[in-house]
From TrEMBL:
Gene3D superfamilies: Jelly Rolls. Residues 30-95 form the Cupin type-2 domain. It comes from the Bacteria. It comes from Terriglobus roseus. InterPro entries: Cupin_2, PKS_Associated_Protein, RmlC-like_jellyroll, RmlC_Cupin_sf. This is Mannose-6-phosphate isomerase, cupin superfamily. It holds the Pfam family Cupin_2. SUPFAM superfamilies: RmlC-like cupins.
Length: 116
């Protein structure tokens, strides 16, 4: 067993909106992802959506208001709430979600998660 260096894991790829699994925890995937631009509006019917910003600034648009999340901050979108993450510049995130949860809320349109 050894510690996981998140910066080193993030340095292994350049593509955006493609989460990389770095560890597992009680049936959850712990992932890092680089994001830039606007993602798709979506929701997760069965699970909350956690965003922990490691670097940069993320806006999470929701139908009723926007939430701005900076480095060292996290925000949890409650299950069933439609949202759209937006990053004007590249943002590095840590995500934790139940294994197998599609990032778009729909397995048919979700990015394939890779392990790094």
């Amino acid at each position: 067993m050894k510690a996981i260096n998140l910066a080193a894991k993030l340095a292994t790829f350049t593509d955006h909106w493609s989460p990389r699994i770095v560890a597992g925890y009680n049936g959850n995937d712990i992932m890092v992802v680089k994001v830039q631009g606007e993602f798709t509006w979506h929701s997760h019917a069965d699970t909350d959506d956690l965003f922990l910003v490691l670097k940069g600034s993320l806006t999470i648009r929701m139908r009723e208001s926007d939430v701005h999340v900076g480095p060292g901050e996290l925000f949890v979108v409650p299950k069933g709430v439609e949202h759209c993450p937006v990053a004007a510049e590249e943002v590095h995130l840590l995500l934790i979600e139940p294994a197998g949860t599609p990032n778009t809320g729909d397995a048919a349109t979700a990015a394939v998660k890779q392990r790094v």
